[in-house]
Amino acid sequence: MAGPRPGGVTLVAVIAWINGVLGVITGILLLTGGAAADSPAVTTAAWVTIVIGIVTILVGVGLLRGSNLARIVATVVFVLNLANAIWTMFAVPGQFWTAIINALLAVIGLVLLYSARANEFFRD
């Protein structure tokens, strides 16, 4: 970590934390809501959601600490979100504007993580 943490990196990290916490809460609610008892698929989805939520929280912590690995993981997620948004624009026309918003958020996240200030921050 070579420089002060840029506000954009902090923003992406805080959003990751919020997303991760919401994922963990969602998974717990799925497990305790009664639906999981009736369906192994719901139980599996709940545990996967909890694990992804925990990983997302850890990525947020890593971003705040200047971890390049966390930036790479976040980049992969943003690129996958962007690809999914582009696919959704054409495959599900009723979700076109939602897909546009998701694509813009992914691009904004990438720009924030790879700005000149962010590059300096993540430099080893």
From TrEMBL:
Keywords recorded for this protein, A-Z: Membrane, Transmembrane, Transmembrane helix
Residues passing through the membrane, by range: 12-32, 44-64, 71-90, 96-116
InterPro entries in the record: DUF7144
Record keyword Transmembrane helix present: yes
Domain DUF7144, chain residue ranges per copy: 9-111
Official protein name in the record: DUF7144 domain-containing protein
Upper classification of the organism: Bacteria, Bacillati, Actinomycetota, Actinomycetes, Micrococcales
